[in-house]
Amino acid sequence: MSRPPASERDLLHVRALPYRMGVGIMLLNADGAVLIGHRVDMKSEAWQMPQGGIDAGETPEQALWRELQEEVGTAKATILARARDWISYDFPAELQARVWDGRFRGQSQMWFLLRFTGVDADLALDTHEREFSETRWVATAELPDMVVGFKRDTYRSVLTEFAAHLRS
């Protein structure tokens, strides 16, 4: 029996890897705009909503509050909704080996929709290891076009999931 070509073997290896489990946070202000941040490690105009991994022994809800505090420096929010299921995406081939030392094929995230109950001055990007160089509030319709290509379907899924709670 012959072995598959190297590129096919690589693909089979990546598909066998687990997803990194995490949370995603859609934070809405009083006007219905969504908070996004520009990652400090990205030179391109790629933005994302706060997100992060679930630590050992942590529930998704605990991870949500920790990540919100770490990434934007506040816990002034209330949960409006939680996704019905995990939303997953694969890393592109050119990134997969570099992200988390190639241990994961992508991420599987539990998404939460929150209402921000504070004021913009409550947001602080340097309370932990800084992940965003800046943040801004944007209309939900703008989200998919502002993120890196491999996350666009995820963001569309999140928008669909929470559509009943969002203003058009």
Written overview of the protein:
The longest helix is centred in the middle third of the chain and has 13 residues, at 60-72. The chain contains 5 helices and 8 strands; from the N terminus they run αββββαββαββαα. Helices cover 25% and strands 29% of the residues. The chain has one domain (6-165): Nucleoside Triphosphate Pyrophosphohydrolase (Alpha-Beta Complex). The strands form 2 sheets. Strands 1, 4, 5, 6 and 7 form a 5-stranded mixed β-sheet that branches. It is an alpha+beta fold.
Major beta-sheet overview: 5 strands, mixed
CA gyration radius, whole angstroms: 17 Å
Mean residue pLDDT = 87
Number of strands: 8
In N-to-C order, the SSE pattern is HEEEEHEEHEEHH
Counting helices, strands and paired strands, the structural category is: alpha+beta
The CATH class is Alpha Beta
CATH superfamily: Nucleoside Triphosphate Pyrophosphohydrolase
Low-confidence stretches: none
The tally of helices reads: 5
Kindly report the oligomeric state of this protein. Answer: single chain
Summarize the helices and strands and which ones pair or pack.
Blueprint: H1 6-16, E1 19-28, E2 34-39, E3 47-48, E4 51-53, H2 60-72, E5 77-82, E6 87-90, H3 93-96, E7 106-116, E8 132-138, H4 143-146, H5 152-161
Parallel strand pairs: 1-7
Antiparallel strand pairs: 1-4, 2-3, 2-8, 5-7, 6-7
